[in-house]
Amino acid sequence: MTDAASAVDRALEAPVITSFTKIGYAARRKLFHWRALDDYDLHGRIIAVTGATSGLGRAAAEQLARDGATVMVLGRNPEKTTRVAADLRAATGNDRIASVIADMGDLATVRRAAAEILATYDRLDVLIHNAGALTNARRAAPDGTEMTVASQVVGPFLLTGLLLERLVASAPARVVTVASGGMYTAELTVGSLQMDAASYNGAKQYARAKRAQVTLNELWARRFPDRSVVFHAMHPGWADTPGVEASLPTFRKVVGPLLRAPLQGADTMVWLAADDGEPLASSGHFWLDRRVRPIHRLRSTARSDTPARREELWDWVVTASGWTPPGAEDETGPSSGSGPPIE
Questions:
Q1: Strands across the sheet with 229-234, in order?
Q2: pTM of the model
Q3: CB contact at 8 A, 157 and 150
Q4: Annotated active-site positions, please?
């Protein structure tokens, strides 16, 4: 990595339009001579991907399968999830692709999915949390939690907890959380994490949930620092997916020519799951285009990110999920918000 390449990367990072679009992806891939995703041999590894029936999740699942991994396609619609798994087997020639039904906003189905995974596989090398959608109308999960928070904060936390022992036994294992650059606009909040019907705004609710995801990624790394499991969050930039088309049609129309292809958006997700170098050398990072990025761009969001509020978030999601961390260590201090909490 040369100083010149790093300087160009910093220049790309400053304006969002160059960093998050396919401009940033194409430039960084050449600047840092990325290893091609097709070059990884993942035979023998078992990987679970939530939200794998379309968009980034499907692109990631297909690439991981092409690299030889055993892949679990997790989705909430049984018919669609079964069909996508069959389509991926046909497309990749890899018969080790299974469907697992899980609505990440319904904790009962999350528990059933975890039980199925534990009963079927004696190891789990990677768990990828990719499921999530931006909805314009407020909906409630079966337990009453706002659906975006339930599916993107509580459900993933519960699934990680239920599978944690199997991940530890498969060391070195990884948990990868797909967040969003939209979280840069959101302060860390617990009391206002779930927007009420009167003030509901889908984009703001999504950003709050993504901020919570990124914070929890750091907290997992701090509370379980032995590195048998590493925790990473990433954001894919702006990619052209069915979710963006359905939820942000105006944005897609304006930015459309610059949006990343799904596999370009999924590149860092796959790399974090496949590469045995940087991804295993640290824990608790937030990544874009295979490089660690700060979790704050605004002073207002950095000010909101206090040790007390982080502790409050962890305690709240433990209660909401019904899962109690076994022998969890206390957080060893606040993240600076500008770099990795665990080296």
A1: 97-101, 70-75, 46-50, 126-129, 173-178, 229-234, 285-288, 291-292
A2: 0.92
A3: no
A4: 206
